[in-house]
Amino acid sequence: MSQSFPFRLRGPVMVRDNEPLSSTTDSRLLDTQPDTEWLHTDPWRVMRIQSEFVNGFGALAEMPDAVSVFGSARTKPGDEYYETAVRIGAALAEAGYAVVTGGGPGQMEAANKGAHQAGGFSVGLGIELPHEQGLNDHLDLGIHFRYFFVRKTMFVKYTQAFVCTPGGFGTLDELFEAVTLVQTNKITRFPIVLFGTEFWGPLVQWIRDRLAAEKMISADDPELLLCTDSVDEAVAHIVRAHRRVLAEKAEKAGVTANGEPAARDDDTAGGDPEQAPES
Fold first, then answer.
1. Residue whose C-alpha is closest to residue 67's, from 35, 107, 111, 33
2. How do strand 225-228 and strand 13-16 relate by DSSP bridges?
3. Cβ neighbours for 31, distance < 8 A, ≥ 6 positions apart
4. What is the pLDDT of residue 272?
5. Is 244:252 a contact under the CB 8 Å cutoff?
6. What dihedral do alpha carbons 91, 95, 98, 102 form, nearest 10°?
7. Whether the Cβ atoms of residue 145 and residue 127 lie closer than 8 Å to each other
8. Whole-angstrom Cα distance, residue 52 to residue 114?
9. CB 212 within 8 A of CB 206
10. CA 139 – CA 235 distance, rounded (Å)
11. What burial class does residue 228 get, using C-beta atoms within 10 Å of its C-beta: 0-12 exposed, 13-18 middle, 19+ buried?
């Protein structure tokens, strides 16, 4: 004879439990709460994180091909780096790309401004910080996030290239996040541009002289980065790499780049594959 044990179901989980049930999940949900500390518990944070992903995916899913532009929040209009970011944003828009930034001031504002003035689609992904910055005034679409890692996912998931203008820790964080994901094949090998050879050159040289030379990375990993002072070169590099990625994806899907079915190896010009001449 099987022995029965006292048990209770907690949703889908069964637990051994001799204590009487004092309340149900429904009753605790509907009961008035004495305080709002529950808003800051980990289970509630999970729901907030989920909602940020859902909101971000929903807002960005139909965005056109886009490029993320990173850079300092501390520069002002008239500064060299600011005005360069304006030109980069405009050139990307003219090449048919939406421009996505962190949505704040400085070079983020500048890239958004350039894209907006050039008639492109300008996007800002803001973040909650101790000293509130808010979103800049040059956006067609703005989203504000609580969590850095959710925001980073949006940068990576919905853009086809990354441009890093001079910046601080945040820019370095975004740069190395992107290059690590490309290096480890977590994302497609999208182009990563470092704009400003005087600013970025010493870092690139250190990567070659230390990381590559000491075999901390593969010998060709530094080639994942293009360091340049030319807006035209940066945009041409992005366009060329993007076209290559599209062609590779089309080939894997068995179609041409314009969506037509790709020719098979056994196809012959105007003939029946079964009647192809023997080699």
1. 111
2. unpaired
3. 23
4. 44
5. no
6. -30
7. yes
8. 28
9. no
10. 21
11. middle
How far is the C-alpha of 24 from the C-alpha of 115, rounded, in Å? 54
With CA atoms as reference, report the closest residue to 181 among 167, 162, 209, 165: 162
Single pTM value for the model: 0.78
User: What are 20-64's pLDDT values in tens digits?
Assistant: 666 655 566 567 767 777 666 777 888 889 999 999 999 999 999
Contact 227, 201 (CB under 8 A): yes
Report residue 84 as tokens: 């360069």
Phi, psi of 95 (to 5 degrees): -85, 0
Distance, CA of 55 to CA of 143 (rounded, Å): 9
Helix (H) or strand (E) run with residue 233 in it = helix 231-253
For residue 157, give the nearest of 141, 178, 140, 183 by alpha carbon.
Answer: 178
Kindly give the pairing relationship between strand 162-164 and strand 141-145: unpaired
Distance CA 95, CA 90 (A): 9
Burial of 191 per CB tally in 10 Å (0-12, 13-18, 19+): buried
Rounded Cα distance between 45 and 41, Å, is: 6
Q: Tokens 């305080």 map to which residue?
A: 35
